[in-house]
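Note to self: user wants both folds in one dump. Writing first protein now.
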Amino acid sequence: MHYQLLGRSGLRVSEICLGTMTFGEDWGWGASKEASKAMFDAYAAAGGNFIDTSSNYTNGTAESFVGDFVSADRDYWIIATKYTLRRPGSNPDDLNAGGNARKNMVRTVEQSLGRLHTDHIDLLYLHMWDYSTPVEEVLRGLDDLVRAGKVLYAGISDTPAWVVSRAQAIAELRGWTPFVAYQGAYNVVNRGIEADVLPM
């Protein structure tokens, strides 16, 4: 289970988030499009408006399903997606097909926008810290996407608290887009974020 922390924005999201990691059967398990639509419809009927997906979930199929499902009323939905992991269908020899660098960020966002059938992503998460890309490069890339209107808010996932704190300080100092959301593993077995992420 992942824990969502949303703050420092005017974004209005339902208390329950619909995760779409199982939308699609590309990985040999998961839900068909019909079953995924039934889950989506039940969530919508319960008043949900916040969908969590990723460019990588079921090789991009999850994003495609979400794009189809929200197309009738796109403005109602808050769509969060992620970049960092290797892009679906990328050349295995392409060293820039994954990671936090601007090149992968921009390419992934363009592919996500296409699959989601939209001109903007409400919340773009950096999926996990790669320990090699300068934090300034990530922040400036995200800020450029926000200024271009392709992304409305930036978030970060599965990243050490010290990295996030440093990033927030740099963003504030330079007038760049700050992170407004954090997503991390948190359950009765994995309570590590209580030590540093939650206090942060």
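First done. Writing the second protein, which came from a different request thread.
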Amino acid sequence: MQKINVEEQLNILIKLQALDAQLYRLRRERTAKPKLIEELEARRNQEQAAVKEIEEKIKANQLKRKQKEMDLQTEEESVKKLSTQLYQIKTNKEYQTMQHEIEGHKADNSLLEDEILAIMEEADSFSKELIKERELFAEAERRLSEDRKKIEGEIAVIDNEIANFESQRKELTAQVDKKVLSQYEKVLANREGVALVAVKNHACQGCFINLPPQVINEIRMKDKITVCESCARILYIENDADV
């Protein structure tokens, strides 16, 4: 079985790790972009719902006013009818009874007029609120349209960069020993895109655990792939003076 050239493999892995760091960053950005559009759509939908809610209040207000106006018309007709009948009454007692009934209807009319006035004031308030909410909805629509185009453009750029890096990655992985690559890929997936780290100040730069002298010596010897016993990342020495 042919022995691998560890130094050569590490040099390739260093380049590969640099590519993968870019790929993981770009993929995170790529994943976040559609969520930005979703947030804008949620805001637009919220404003749209606010407009519909006020429109429903206005409809209910109009129906309530119509009903009150019909009630007022009925009461006014009752007053008119009773007032006409008042002149046909012969006894004082009947006159007083009907007069009291008329006054009751007039009092009801006054209450209905107050209620209609309050409904009209409420309608005026709803109209002003509707104008404001429609402006907010229009702004949310405009922003969604503009930002969607911008974000979709950014996604296209990211996709292009990812494709470029993946092409470069394919060329590099072809040069890595299959077992070494398998080990690297496993750690890469488990450690959020960081499978290879340098050693500085006798510490792994992945988990920052101090490394025993024998581990440092193993890395220097470049006789085999050495990993951190704490985080399993592959270790290398970039600058011997930093160790």
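Dump finished. Worth passing along: The longest strand covers residues 196-200.
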